[in-house]
User: Which sequence fits this backbone?
């Protein structure tokens, strides 16, 4: 598998990385599967079919400097920050269900390879450690290509996670934060490896080649990114 990387490791908004997935799928035409990892400042990502006003606490996000973007895959809201890592997988396939199952199995086995126990896919799009969720994932199809992407929690701001994706009309208490914490798990509780070492081992386990995007590639990504930045796309029904 080919690891896709930027020439300069400058931080970008989440919209850039969603566009980067599309750019790799639509423009690079690599024969091998592609993969990359990325991180963002606090951001809510919501699914293609979701109503932003029903799913995202816009007031809380604006008050706390949390970005929000719509993705083109389905599924629900996800909160991301620099304490978790996002993965993107691009493959030359057409069968969505088979590819998604392969991706979830691949990521589960990768986590086991770094020493985690009882890692397994659950339901349609989650990866679990035991009975707790450590990763949520989604997928979408382009002509001749499939893009799968997901979260991987190492640590996170639990208050932001809970409040940013909950309607502001719902009154929340500390018990609500604790309840969410009981349903999810954080990698830091299951390993002595640093976050940087985990990311390094994931890359080394999955990828045996590297493709570095140049300045022209970045300009192409930024062109695609404009769609993700349009208010009509973000707020549209």
Assistant:
């Amino acid at each position: 598998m080919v690891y896709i990387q930027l020439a300069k490791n400058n931080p970008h908004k989440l919209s850039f990385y969603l566009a980067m997935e599309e750019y790799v799928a639509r423009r690079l035409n690599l024969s091998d599967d592609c993969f990359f990892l990325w991180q963002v400042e606090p951001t809510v990502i919501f699914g293609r079919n979701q109503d932003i006003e029903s799913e995202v606490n816009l007031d809380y996000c604006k008050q706390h400097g949390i970005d929000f973007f719509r993705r083109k895959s389905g599924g629900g809201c996800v909160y991301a920050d620099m304490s978790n890592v996002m993965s993107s997988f691009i493959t030359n396939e057409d069968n969505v269900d088979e590819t998604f199952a392969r991706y979830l199995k691949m990521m589960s086995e990768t986590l086991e390879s770094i020493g985690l126990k009882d890692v397994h896919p659950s339901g349609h799009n989650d990866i679990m450690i035991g009975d707790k969720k450590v990763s949520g994932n989604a997928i979408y199809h382009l002509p001749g290509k499939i893009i799968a992407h997901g979260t991987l929690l190492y640590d996170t701001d639990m208050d932001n996670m809970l409040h940013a994706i909950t309607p502001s009309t719902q009154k929340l208490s500390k018990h609500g934060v604790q309840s969410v914490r009981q349903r999810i798990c954080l990698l830091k509780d299951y390993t002595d490896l640093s976050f940087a070492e985990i990311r390094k081992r994931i890359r080394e386990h999955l990828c045996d080649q590297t493709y570095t995007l140049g300045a022209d590639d970045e300009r192409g990504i930024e062109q695609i990114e404009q769609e993700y930045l349009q208010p009509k796309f973000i707020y549209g029904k």
User: Anything to note?
Assistant: The longest strand covers residues 132-142. The mean pLDDT is 92. The chain is about 40% helix and 25% strand.
